[in-house]
């Protein structure tokens, strides 16, 4: 029996090592110091529930993108700062889940926080969500910056009172990150990278994130301050659909 259990342990270990497609890695295996708060595997996101295909709270990326993030992290760590990722590789089935959600007019439970000034039917047209997401190619990441030592991050519990994502940092959902002018996944013009209507401090923080990411090979997305894609992508024309697990 002991031999059987030992062999089973080895087999499971092999499965975990080789579960990802070639060229993909767990970010934690490349840099364990980068913080992770994988929003789509939980309830604190714009649809208010775990998204299809997200079975674990882990960040998966192409090896090239993960290595570039490690370089960005090393640069920030010299100033007692750290990256914090919210989303990485996103399976095609997750994007399809977003499409189904957008067509359900009755589901407005997360509107007050994540899209307070936008009609949910327009989130694709306005460029906040894509019908074919670059995340599905494995080299796009949503992230922010945290001061180290990191402050306590309160847990989100479904049903808590919601506050608009563009509210001042002391009023919107408490986050342990540097103020970027809005919360993550704020589907609103206030989240546009170069929006100057936010505070001067928040704009400087956005520019710091942008500068570090560009310096390490990432291209920003103007509609979302948190969204960056590593270039050149190793899989520019391939959209993957394996689970995040």
TrEMBL record:
Protein's name according to its UniProt entry: D-alanyl-D-alanine dipeptidase
Phylogenetic classification of the source organism: Bacteria, Pseudomonadati, Pseudomonadota, Gammaproteobacteria, Legionellales
Binding residues for Zn(2+): 135, 142, 227
Cofactor detail note: Binds 1 zinc ion per subunit.
InterPro entries registered for this protein in UniProt: A_A_dipeptidase, Zn_M74/Hedgehog-like
Catalytic machinery residues: 224
Role description: Catalyzes hydrolysis of the D-alanyl-D-alanine dipeptide.
Catalytic activity: D-alanyl-D-alanine + H2O = 2 D-alanine
GO biological-process terms attached to the record: cell wall organization; proteolysis
């Amino acid at each position: 029996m002991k031999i059987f259990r030992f062999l089973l342990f080895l087999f499971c270990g092999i499965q975990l090592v080789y579960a990802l497609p070639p060229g993909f890695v767990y970010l934690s295996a490349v840099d364990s110091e980068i913080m992770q708060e994988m929003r789509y595997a939980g309830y604190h996101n714009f649809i208010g529930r775990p998204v299809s295909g997200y079975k674990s709270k882990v960040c998966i990326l192409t090896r090239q993108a993960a290595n570039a993030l490690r370089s960005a992290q090393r640069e920030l760590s010299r100033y007692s700062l750290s990256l914090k990722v919210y989303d990485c590789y996103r399976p095609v089935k997750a994007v399809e889940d977003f499409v189904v959600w957008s067509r359900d007019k009755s589901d407005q439970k997360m509107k007050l926080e994540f899209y307070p000034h936008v009609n949910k039917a327009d989130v694709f047209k306005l460029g906040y969500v894509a019908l074919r997401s670059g995340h599905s190619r494995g080299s796009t990441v949503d992230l922010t910056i945290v001061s180290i030592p990191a402050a306590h991050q309160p847990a989100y519990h479904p049903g808590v009172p919601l506050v608009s994502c563009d509210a001042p940092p002391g009023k919107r959902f408490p986050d342990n990150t540097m103020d970027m002018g809005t919360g993550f996944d704020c589907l609103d013009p206030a989240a546009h990278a170069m929006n100057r209507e936010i505070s001067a401090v928040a704009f400087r923080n956005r520019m710091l994130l942008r500068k570090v990411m560009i310096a390490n090979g990432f291209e920003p997305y103007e509609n979302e301050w948190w969204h960056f894609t590593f270039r050149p992508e190793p899989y520019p024309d391939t959209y993957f659909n394996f689970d995040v697990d």
